[in-house]
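Quick note —
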Amino acid sequence: MKLNNIPQIKHSDSGNFFLLAGPCAIEGEEMALNIAETILKITDKLEIPFIFKGSFKKANRSRIDSFTGIGDEKALKILRKVSETFKVPTVTDIHERADAAKAAEYVDVLQIPAFLVRQTDLVVAAAETGKVVNLKKGQFMSPESMKHAVTKVTDCNNEQVMVTDRGTMFGYQDMIVDFRGIPTMRQFAPTVLDVTHSLQQPNQSSGVTGGRPDMIETIARAGIATGADGIFIETHFDPSTAKSDGANMLDIQYLEKLLTNLTAIRKTINSFE
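Predicted structure written out below.
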């Protein structure tokens, strides 16, 4: 995948890592536009290629009463408005074959959730849209096995594919990141580290996923140091009131400092290379 092939991507020649960032789910138009504008100001300042992330619906929920979205078409139209307003590419995750063609009308990158990355029909449907496909590594999969997921995309004559590590299950209620996986998966495709989901604490008795946001910078720094091409961060103005994944999201007030520090590390890594 060539970063500058993504529509409206900025700063693709800066030598910096690229960033997929935004709220876990689209909760409304105002919040999405405000978050996108805030991130864009920071990424323009630091010359970070930026893709706005927001889920148009949430299908993987622990409880039946969990928030799943504001309506598919309504959320997808908000993603399109973000793109048109700020001239940035957008990414959303899909869960069913029919979602691929539907979401492809509105966004630039289709993301396959980690739990679904072995679903061949879903991956092929995403690939056949011609959009960039972001494959989340299953929490139950080795880095080496992601080669086969990548091949499913490229066998559909779509070379626009990247891989995202979002941690590996450790016991029942924790995630760990094996940083050896980053150089391994970079052999197959550009590789992103999903910092916030890697700090989830799933399978809580309450049915609400926990998290360790205090470790976001630690994990992100290590990801850049080990060669990640991109960083994935879910962020919100008030994670405590977020309708999905609030426990592991980054409060947006801390985003500029984090990205400034990561940019400094990336410059050092580039000087080694």
